[in-house]
Specification:
Distance between the termini: 24 Å
CATH topology of the largest domain: Rossmann fold
Largest sheet: 6 strands, mixed
Order of helices and strands: EEEHEEEHHHEHEHEEHHEEEEEEEEEE
Structural class: alpha+beta
CATH architecture of the largest domain: 3-Layer(aba) Sandwich
Number of domains: 2
Bound molecules: adenosine-5'-diphosphate, magnesium ion
Number of helices: 8
CATH class of the largest domain: Alpha Beta
Helix content: 10-25%
Strand content: 25-35%
Radius of gyration: 25 Å
Length: 382
Amino acid sequence: MAAKSRHLNKIEPWHDPEERPYVYIENLTKDYDGSIAVDEVTLSVYRGELFSLLGRSGCGKSTLLRMLAGFEIPSSGRIYIDGIDMSGIPPHRRPVSMVFQSYALFPHMNVEQNVAFGLKQEKLPKSQINERVNDVLELVQMLDFKKRKPHQLSGGQRQRIALARSLVKRPKLLLLDEPLAALDKKLREKTQLELVNIQEEVGITFIMVSHDQEEAMTMASRIGIMADGRIIQVGTPTEIYEYPNSKYVSNFVGTINMFEGVVMEEEENYAVVRSSVLDEINIMVEHSTSAAIGAHVSIAIRPEKVVISKRPPKDRNYNCVKGIVQDIVYLGDVSIYHVELANGRIVYSTATNLFRIAERPIQWDDEVYLYWLPENSILLTA
Ligand code: ADP
Ligand code: MG
């Protein structure tokens, strides 16, 4: 899987020291009678971002989102939105709207009434309500379905109405809790793109919860990886994918080859690691974190960075192992090769299919060489 990254209009505001975060979460904790759902989270989200909170079920994503919305009171810590401390500010006074995992549409109201509901409560003039409802239904391409009731809509259409109902209130910050979870895979992928387009069009800040890493990778400007109530890493999809900061993140985000080893040499820009599971070859790693000689570390290498070939690379006494092709998973544009080393360990290599399948040069049971560049192996100490 390739990591895609979206571009904000401004150049990466998180790298701009002048830029103030739009949402600033400081040491936020939620303790449910001794069980910690959110644990000392500090996080900055910038205006116009589509920020994704990604993590397994139960890691605290919804709780964090609910505290932002004001539905849940933090045990400690603070939330600032546009520089204003949200402590004690009720949900309806925050510049925030939330799209729930279950769309929670009113079943007895039609689409138009569902979307208009919030504005009616705010007692806006009727003409203004009509105009705003029409605009937002046009935006989500549901204008023709105005008079339908929720049960007459598909899952994807209901999702768009839930989105419209939130957007019509013109929040500055939209919170989305697994908004696409109820859709099947194909529709979900289509809706992901629609949602990104809508976000770019309206230009408001989105914070979206997801447990699907591909979804987050495709949609988000940046991702915050959560586990056990904590944020483990924050970065662009590319940063998270190419430079995971821990074993947890590298395993969680996409397929990865992971080998335990011991640091043998330690230089300023690279280290040499020896791994018994990789036939005791020298592994050269470019790295920024330091690891002492003798330290036990892990080396992570993405399958698409591993070159597979029937011929050995020239003049190479590192980052190269030999094995037998045990399985080939054909995925259309790419194939994943499962290569078994002499010690039984499987190494994965993903290669683009340049040949038609009948002409594929590497076959089952072929002896192959696997090799990769020092800059493509990640040294993990955590
Ligand atoms: P996620 O959205 O990542 O799946 P949640 O934020 O819903 O996770 O839940 C995080 C943890 O907090 C879970 O262990 C959950 O059981 C617990 N939790 C959530 N809401 C409550 C609550 N109202 N009372 C007690 N525990 C809760
Ligand atoms: Mg949840």
